[in-house]
Amino acid sequence: MPSSVKILKIVGAGRSGSTIISNIIGQIPGAFAVGELQYLWMPGYLEQILCACGQTVTQCAVWSAIFKQAFGDVAGVDRERLHALYLQNTRGLSGMSAILRSTARKPQPLLDYLAYLERFYTAIAAVTGCHLIIDEAKHPTYSVMLDMIPGLQCYTLHLVRDARAVVYSMQRKTLTRTTQGQVSFMINSAGRTSRDWIVSNVLAEWLGRMERAPRLFMRYEDFARHPEALTRQLLGFIEEPADLCPVHGHAVDISDSHIFASNPVRFARGNVEIRLDDDWQRELKARDKALTTALTLPLLWRYHYPVRAQHK
Question: Quick one: CA torsion of 200, 205, 209, 212, rounded to 10 degrees?
């Protein structure tokens, strides 16, 4: 893989704004936003989950070319094995212990998965001609594995959103487009979402200490209030010219992209307004708001979120 290829990895909990940021940075010349590739080989995803272009990844001309470059033919890929390797290397104590070992002692399943990742990301850079890949890695152990790939110049964005906003987002019935038509998109309880939010952010901080990649912390709320300024800051962080910033005020023009999985906002096109979604402050049930605040309080304080909702 060419040493000039950079990768911006976005880590943190789901529903924290990673897709819109990925789509924005993906608008600059030489950038390619891939979405959430760690879920690519989950059962049914290739056939049902749509690329942002509106086709399945096997029908999409760009992804088809990437698959051909990396594997010869997607039909020849052992999907079950790759999905099993992903789970084995990212879930539970076994996954964390594997990536914490020295290079000489890394288990074979991890080495096999790293070889696959290098092959796949090399193909992405070769086919698209990009020098910057934006990956909504989300899962901290997956982020660490990307950091291990030779030839990738990695940058990590730890993106955080108020846990109560995430809980509210997870409880809303959101529809996403699939080959089966419009389907509901994840509805989780306040307790489960709070737990996942804590684990994602604690691991993002803890495992991030072992990465070689420089790190930037950003709150989604700050980005939504000042999108142009923080996009320029992010471009500076990844060593791209600030004058390439596609955001003007609170608006950005989104052209065609090929983001896989991710939030349904990946389908947005044209002039998109960036605004703070704080409906949770008025509409999240008092019981769920109290439970989420209690469970996540230490991190809310750490990330400088107010304990009480600030109604406007």
Answer: 70
Structure-token match 């960036």, residue found: 274
- State how far the Cα of 102 lies from the Cα of 115, in Å rounded to an integer: 17
Question: What distance in Å separates the CA atoms of residue 253 and residue 272, rounded to the nearest whole number?
Answer: 6
Q: Given this model, what pLDDT does residue 97 score?
A: 76
Residue 266 CB contacts under 8 Å (≥ 6 apart), including other chains: 19, 23, 35, 52, 257, 259
Locate 288 and state its tokens. 């769920």
Task: State the Cα–Cα distance between residues 265 and 110, nearest whole angstrom.
Answer: 33
Calpha distance 71→224 (Å, rounded): 39
- Work out whether strand 215-219 and strand 247-248 pair parallel, antiparallel, or are unpaired: unpaired
- Give the residue with greater pLDDT, 158 vs 2: 158
Comparison of pLDDT for 26 and 266, the residue scoring more: 26
Q: Which residue has the tokens 């990330």?
A: 303
Condensed to tens digits (0 to 9), the pLDDT of residues 152-195 reads 999 999 999 999 999 999 998 665 555 555 555 567 899 999 99
pLDDT at 49: 85
Q: Is the model's pLDDT at 233 over the cut of 90? A: yes
Report long-range pairs for 204-208 (Cβ below 8 Å, ≥24 apart): 204/11, 204/12, 204/140, 204/143, 204/158, 205/158, 206/140, 207/96, 207/99, 207/140, 207/141, 207/143, 207/144, 208/11, 208/140, 208/143, 208/144, 208/156, 208/158
End-to-end CA distance of the chain: 50
Task: Provide the residue ranges of all domains of the chain, joining segments of one domain with +.
Answer: 6-71+121-302
pLDDT score of 73 more than 90 = no
Domain 6-71+121-302 has CATH 3.40.50.300: yes
CA dist 190 and 213 (Å) reads 33
